[in-house]
């Protein structure tokens, strides 16, 4: 029979000034959390906490505690979790933790600690997790982690360290996770083995090359985050154990041929928001283990996306936002029947080819927001309604043209579907589908339209938004070319007609609409009622 451990939890969410009423807390309390819901506390740690000798977890957050004090928590031998984050602690000394022999987790993040002496934590030899993130530490003392042989997780993020000497890791060789986000690091060189290290997060630093990380570290890492660094070349990596690799928001423009091939366990790859224009050399053979890929924010065409999909048959999530795609053929998803999440937002799509939903039978989420859809065919919405797996289609942020033929299929679908029910209750809701055209309906929620009041499809002078929603990219070029040609012919005709005329200064006042006006503005000479008159309506900001 399993042993049942009963815990007494006390949560204090009010505001306290200078004094916390420990005497009102039951002596058998095992979990005490002092976390104000609003504002901050003004507290000092005092020896009165010792009377709660059954404590296993103590969290005092947002309470402006200036220091921990000498042996303040002495006698709390059963305390396993101590969280003093978001306070004003400025320094740590070794006697702060004297008597806490059972402590496993210590969180001192987001204080104002600027210095920590050597062996500051030697009283808490059982410590497994330590966070010093968000302080003002610029230098780590030699043997600072002395006797922390049991430490598994260390977070030094948001300290301006610049350099971490390898001697720092001498006493924590059993470390499994090291996090140093935004530490100003340019490299991580550790000559000796950290054979248990599996998670390495160095996001937001100044690392320019994989060569600046010790190769033997990369060989054992399972999860590596080097996002928001300054890497410009994806070199061939020896990462046989890698499962998750984050390289987003670097400046990668080139990659070695087949750089990730040695990794047969890679499940998640994020190379979003770089300057990658070619994916053909990323993989040369099938990657059946790869399930999640994010290629958003790179200039990649449909063929590049297809080359990736052809080698990732087990893919369940594809983030392909902001690639500049003007069309997506259902055929590129052939062989990716496991895909559950597809993000095509922030592209230049104006319509969808039939069969996209049918090509992805397990699709749960489809993001088409922030494209150039002015309307979608009824067949698309019929496919959405018929899909057994599909739970959400994101359509917000498109320039919907609210006339009968363009918005009709969407209105019919909204009447039957609950996906967008209630999204326009709040005026500022970003999920609300709104009209872009005509101008008298701009910003009107689509769900509030009255079909009888909609313009017919033949109404003249569509705006630029509706034009881009009606035609494909090539059609847009054709229209622009036609308009330019007509303008050129008109100009040439007018100039040719008056090329022999001389202009003499007689001192007489020119009449309004004379020859000078015609030469300066040939369109001026056209009658607005003539068939050749071109009226270009430029869009107003939405």
Explain this structure:
The protein is mostly loops and 542 residues long. Among the domains are: 1-151, Leucine-rich repeat, LRR (right-handed beta-alpha superhelix), CATH 3.80.10.10; 471-525, no CATH class. The protein is built from seven helices and 21 strands. The strands form three sheets. The protein has a 17-stranded parallel β-sheet, with no helix packed on it. The chain has a two-stranded parallel sheet with strand order 11-13. β18, α3 (378-386) and β19 (392-394) form a beta-alpha-beta unit.
Task: Describe the structure concisely.
The protein is mostly loops and 542 residues long. The chain has helices at 215-220, 302-309, 378-386, 404-416, 464-470, 473-497, 515-520; strands at 9-12, 31-34, 57-60, 81-83, 105-107, 129-131, 153-155, 177-179, 199-201, 223-225, 233-234, 244-246, 254-255, 268-270, 292-294, 317-319, 341-343, 365-367, 392-394, 400-401, 435-437.
* Unreliable parts: 459-479, 494-542
How many separate helices? 7
According to CATH, what is the class of the domain at 1-151?
A: Alpha Beta
**Helix share bin:** 10-25%
Task: State the secondary-structure class.
Answer: little secondary structure
Strand content: 5-15%
- Which fold name corresponds to the CATH topology of the domain at 1-151? Leucine-rich repeat, LRR (right-handed beta-alpha superhelix)
Give the end-to-end Cα distance, rounded to a whole number of Å.
66 Å
The chain-level mean pLDDT equals 86
Alpha-carbon Rg, integer = 33 Å
* Largest sheet composition: 17 strands, parallel
Shape: globular
């Amino acid at each position: 029979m399993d042993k049942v451990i009963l815990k007494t939890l006390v949560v204090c969410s009010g505001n306290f000034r200078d004094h916390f009423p420990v005497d009102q807390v039951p002596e058998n309390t095992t979990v005490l959390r002092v976390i104000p819901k609003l504002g901050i506390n003004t507290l000092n740690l005092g020896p009165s906490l010792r009377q709660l000798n059954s404590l296993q977890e103590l969290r005092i957050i947002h309470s402006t505690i200036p220091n921990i004090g000498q042996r303040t928590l002495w006698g709390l031998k059963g305390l396993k979790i101590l969280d003093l984050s978001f306070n004003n602690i400025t320094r740590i000394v070794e006697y702060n933790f004297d008597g806490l022999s059972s402590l496993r987790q210590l969180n001192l993040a987001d204080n104002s600690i600027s210095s920590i002496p050597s062996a500051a934590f030697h009283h808490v030899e059982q410590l497994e997790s330590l966070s010093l993130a968000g302080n003002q530490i610029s230098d780590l003392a030699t043997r600072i982690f002395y006797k922390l042989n049991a430490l598994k997780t260390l977070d030094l993020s948001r300290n301006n360290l610049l350099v971490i000497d390898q001697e720092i890791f001498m006493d924590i060789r059993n470390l499994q996770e090291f996090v140093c986000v935004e530490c100003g690091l340019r490299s991580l060189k550790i000559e000796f083995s950290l054979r248990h290290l599996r998670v390495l997060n160095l996001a937001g630093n100044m690392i320019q090359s994989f060569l600046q990380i010790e190769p033997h570290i990369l060989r054992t890492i399972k999860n590596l985050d080097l996002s928001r660094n300054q890497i410009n070349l994806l070199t061939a990596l020896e990462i046989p154990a890698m499962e998750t690799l984050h390289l987003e928001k670097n400046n990668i423009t080139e990659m070695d041929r087949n750089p990730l091939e040695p990794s047969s366990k890679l499940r998640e790859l994020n190379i979003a928001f770089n300057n990658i224009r070619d994916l053909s050399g990323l993989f040369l053979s099938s990657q059946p283990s790869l399930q999640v890929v994010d290629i958003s924010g790179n200039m990649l065409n449909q063929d590049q996306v297809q080359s990736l999909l052809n080698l990732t048959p087990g893919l369940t999530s594809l983030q392909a936002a902001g690639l500049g795609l003007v069309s997506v053929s259902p055929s590129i998803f052939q062989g990716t029947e496991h895909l559950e999440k597809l993000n095509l937002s922030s592209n230049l799509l104006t319509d969808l080819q039939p069969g996209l939903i049918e090509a992805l039978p397990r699709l749960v989420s489809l993001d088409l927001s922030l494209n150039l859809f002015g309307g979608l065919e009824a067949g698309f919405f019929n496919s959405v309604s018929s899909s057994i797996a599909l739970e959400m289609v994101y359509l917000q942020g498109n320039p919907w043209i609210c006339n009968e033929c363009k918005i009709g299929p969407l209105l019919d679908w909204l009447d039957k579907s609950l996906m967008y029910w209630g999204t326009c209750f709040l005026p500022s809701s970003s999920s609300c589908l709104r009209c872009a055209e005509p101008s008298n309906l701009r910003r009107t929620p689509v769900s509030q339209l009255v079909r009888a009041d909609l313009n017919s499809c033949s109404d003249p002078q569509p705006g630029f938004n509706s034009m881009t929603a009606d035609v494909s990219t090539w059609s847009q070029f054709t229209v622009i070319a036609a308009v330019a040609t007509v303008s050129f012919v008109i100009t040439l005709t007018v100039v040719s007609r008056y090329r022999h005329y001389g202009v003499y200064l007689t001192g007489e006042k020119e009449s309004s609409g004379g020859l000078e006006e015609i030469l300066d503005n040939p369109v001026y000479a056209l009658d607005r009622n003539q068939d050749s008159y071109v009226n270009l309506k430029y869009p107003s900001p939405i």
